[in-house]
Amino acid sequence: MAEYKREAAKVTSIFVYPIKSCRGISVFRAPLSSTGFRWDRQWLVVNSKGRAYTQRVEPKLALVEVELPNEAFSDCWVPNNSSYMVIRAPSMDPLKVPLSKPSATADGVSVWEWSGSAFDEGDGASKWFSRYLGKPSRLVRFNEASETRNVDPNYAPGYKVMFSDQYPFLLASQGSLEALNKLLKEPIPINRFRPNILVDGCEPFAEDLWKEIRIQKLTFNGVKLCSRCKVPTINQETAMANSEPTETMKKFRSDKVLRPSKKPQGTKVYFGQNMVCSDSQIPGKGKMITVGNPVYVLKAFSSAADAAA
Fold it and tell me: What is the tens place of the pLDDT at every residue in 135-191?
């Protein structure tokens, strides 16, 4: 493993996704919490049995826009009784969800391997999502006071998330997107891959090798290459799916191509690096990154085959 201390890239975009599988919010700066960026995947839409809805089965979620108050991304901001999340979707009236903690709870909420209780955002939100999706739905909010969802201890022991798929942060580079787009008949935007941090200035797929980086005096560790599901094939403007970019990625971003000496993991394709932030686990204020922050690589793998996946 090589060790460096050089500016490798700059942060060009920061994205927070308050409701899992709905549209993200592009922000200039974002405070960190122990589970990732504040507000990230704090809410979840579930079916009548409490199971998570995602774009994999409900691609219409891609069209749901989420708005938070601008001050919500200030360090240590506390919501008051007039603070709301506003949700919009085609042919729907806006839905206002109070940011103050609801009092009702829903038991039996589940997402992937985790199940537990969550706050229930009430009948109004339930009717809104039920009408939009055309089936019984509820909007729930992660309850950090009573629940903990740990990430895979084989990759990042001691870290936790709310309703994210697996890890607190996903980082990708503009160079990687541009390299992929050169091979596609129709270029795609970065929102297909739903990163939290987008950087630019590095070689395509350099982020595969980033074992330890520093942004704004915060240390991030790359813990696992991000294997991609169906979601990147869904156009985030139309909610329609096709075979790309997965078919093209199979040719040069598959497990077989990137990790030929490793045990094959089926038909996995990789884009982006899952990350944790060790400093986010330490109590204290002022943990925030901003668009324009330089990215310093402290430790790097020699090849993608050496990185965890």
Answer: 999 999 999 999 999 999 999 999 999 999 999 999 999 999 999 999 999 999 999
Could you report how far apart the first and last alpha carbons of the chain are, in Å? 16
- Give the pLDDT confidence of 270-298 residue by residue, as tens digits: 999 999 999 988 877 779 999 999 999 99
Q: 3-state secondary structure string, the chain?
A: CEEEEEEEEEEEEEEECCECCCCCEEECEEEEECCEECCCCCEEEECCCCEECCCCCCHHHHHCEEECCHHHHCCCCCCCCCCEEEEECCCCCCEEEECCCCCCEEEEEEECCEEEEEEECCHHHHHHHHHHHCCCCEEEEECCCCCCEECCCCCCCCCEECCCCCCCEEEEEHHHHHHHHCCCCCCCCHHHCCCCEEEECCCCCHHHHEEEEEECCEEEEEEEEEECCCHHHECCCCCCECCCCHHHHHHHCEHHHHCCCCCCCCCCEEEEEEEEEHHHHCCCCCCEEECCCEEEEEEECCCHHHCCC
Instruction: Please compute, for residue 16, the number of CA atoms within 13 A of its CA located in the half-sphere on the CB side.
Output: 26
Q: Could you tell me the two tokens for 131?
A: 């009408």
Burial class of 10 by CB neighbour count within 10 A (0 to 12, 13 to 18, 19+): middle
Which is nearest to 181 in space by CA: 133, 261, 244?
A: 244
Closest CA to 176 of 223, 235, 212, 225: 225
Q: Residue 215 has which token pair? A: 């942004």
**Cα–Cα distance between 160 and 243 in angstroms, integer?**
32
pTM confidence score: 0.96
Q: What gap in Å lies between CA 208 and CA 255, rounded to an integer? A: 13
